[in-house]
Structure prediction request, 89 residues.
Amino acid sequence: MDDYSNHPVSLTEAKANRECNSALWTPRDALISMLRDIDSGEINPDALVAVCRTKDEDGVYRTTFVNATPDVHVAMGLLTRGHFRLMEA
Prediction:
């Protein structure tokens, strides 16, 4: 298993954090940041929901969704909490 606990912070991640601007993050940097926090023991999540957008060769946007949750209620709660956190920004 890969261990990201000591993975370096990218320049993009550092700038996004410094400026508190999520638009500066790359999706990969965001995922590695979370993996770094998990592998270092800083956080110990018991549920996760991840959603991403991709654009196909025809310019059509698609949504990919994965989740590791005990049930649909926890997934919906995480999505709702995420919605409120985004609105606070």
